[in-house]
Amino acid sequence: MADPTGFMRHGRELPQRRPVQVRISDWREVYQPFAAEKLNAQASRCMDCGIPFCHNGCPLGNLIPEWNDLVRTDRWQAAIERLHATNNFPEFTGRLCPAPCEAACVVGIKSDPVTIKQVEVEIIDRAWAEGWVTPQIPGRLTGMRVAVVGSGPAGLAAAQQLTRAGHEVTVYESADRIGGLLRYGIPEFKMEKRHLDRRLAQMEAEGTRFVTGVHVGTDLTAEQLRADSDAVVIATGATVPRDLPAPGRELAGIYSAMEYLVPANRVQLGDLESSPIDAAGKHVVIIGGGDTGADCLGTAHRQGALSVTQLEIMARPADQRPGYTPWPTWPLIYRTSSAHEEGGERLFAVNTERFVGDEDGNVRALALHEVELVEGRFAKIEGTEREIPADLVFLAMGFVSTGDTAEGGLLQSLGVAVDPRGRAVRDAQWKSTADGVFIAGDAGRGQSLIVWAIAEGRATAAAVDAYLSGSSTLPAPVRPDSMALAAG
Ligand SMILES: Cc1cc2nc3c(=O)[nH]c(=O)nc-3n(C[C@H](O)[C@H](O)[C@H](O)COP(=O)(O)OP(=O)(O)OC[C@H]3O[C@@H](n4cnc5c(N)ncnc54)[C@H](O)[C@@H]3O)c2cc1C
Ligand code: SF4
């Protein structure tokens, strides 16, 4: 039984972020520790609703009211068991998820929602600290071999579930380290990589095999992959960035967000002394107002940028939940991430007209104009043209596809059909058009979120287990056609 008056006695409270000047001088996570008694009070705000709408918001089906109450009553070990029952990697979602569960929380109808994400991350951090997270070695082995291609959150979740079900799982990754976008996309200040490494050590101890530096389709052919495995999970993500073919696009100094973020992450991993794309002393413009743009923003400030401007073609959202995204849906509101708090200017309802270069072929400015929506299309507002200085431009307008087209690539060589948006086609059982080949994560869904990747990885594992064993007791939290939020 939950605390019936907790939400009336306690307001919503989150941990403080470290002071801006301190945190932009390092790359560590931005949040300060949160006292256990404060968290206890936050957990007590949960009403244990008869119909917990937070479940509806969470693709993983996290048992939120259960672990809120276990934290409130100081039963932390039971709390991590309930949390791990639905989520393989709460240390990732607890730090990185936009928390659709909180947008759907019933307390949020009239007040501020329960701090579900904070309770989640505190449970898993305490569990690691107490030594409660240990390898779950399978009790029996099936002798079946599963190849997982891609080591982002979808591939990792599928691999952990299938290893625990007793299958022999090998994860192939083309990059030199495991983790997908968790490793080379998401900056250290949002999630320190030690959280990923700790989880990978657990997975290896459970028996999952990791092979890095192998691009399946070229280094290892589709035929070899099929010959070596009884089932294949494709979890290769959606990696092709949306481009902006405006005049001047060919100028030096214009990069996709991932071209910028990967070397910045490699500096933190000790691979590089400094990044070849360094914002120190430069005017930076980021095109795209979403999370990926905010990651570029936080990175540019830590590198010592002179100025950073983030452009967004959509109008500035309202501060309060607008009527067209009513509770419990995901609200389209103005959000300020920790990176926004650190500085820079945000311009809304603007469009890039062209990139302006200097005599050496480097970008030096960006010409933009304001726009308004006219009959569903962005129309230029005449007389609003202007230039802003830009020594570096980062394109952060989302990702379009797996990079595989119907004409070529890994999917084609496996016999997996691709839809017109470049996504691998799968049926309601996560099966592709090739027998024994299953699709999980952004490769099938298109660009999305970590929580969806984990949920899809878990559900795909259940489908693969049933394919190999005739039936499965693994949980399948989502269906391929479930609605998703996309990261920007
Ligand atoms: C900069 C950035 C920041 C983001 N921030 C957030 C956030 O804060 N919160 C959030 O919820 N979501 C965020 N997202 C989205 C989230 O990271 C993705 O939705 C998620 O990682 C998708 O997981 P995935 O496993 O499907 O693919 P990915 O994480 O993309 O992993 C796919 C992996 O497959 C590998 N691969 C591809 N082809 C092959 C091949 N042929 N052979 C071998 N390996 C291959 C790739 O190298 C990659 O490592 C962000 C995305 C970006 C780009
Ligand atoms: S909707 Fe909010 S208050 Fe209700 S059970 Fe979920 S977290 Fe608790």
Task: Characterise the protein shown here.
- The chain is α/β, with parallel strands linked by helices and 488 residues long.
- Helices cover 32% and strands 16% of the residues.
- The protein is built from 19 helices and 16 strands.
- The protein has helices at 6-9, 20-23, 36-43, 53-57, 64-72, 76-84, 90-96, 100-103, 116-130, 153-164, 181-184, 194-206, 222-227, 257-268, 291-303, 338-341, 410-414, 442-445, 450-469, and strands at 145-149, 168-173, 209-212, 231-234, 240-241, 254-256, 283-287, 307-312, 345-348, 350-357, 363-374, 377-380, 386-389, 392-395, 399-401, 437-439.
- Strands 3-2-1-4-16 form a 5-stranded parallel beta sheet, covered by helices on one side. Strands 6-14-7-8-9 form a 5-stranded parallel beta sheet. Strands 10, 11, 12 and 13 form a 4-stranded antiparallel beta sheet that branches.
- α10 links the parallel β1 and β2 (168-173).
- α5 packs across α9 (116-130).
- The longest helix is centred in the C-terminal third of the chain and has 20 residues, at 450-469.
- The radius of gyration is 23 Å and the shape is globular.
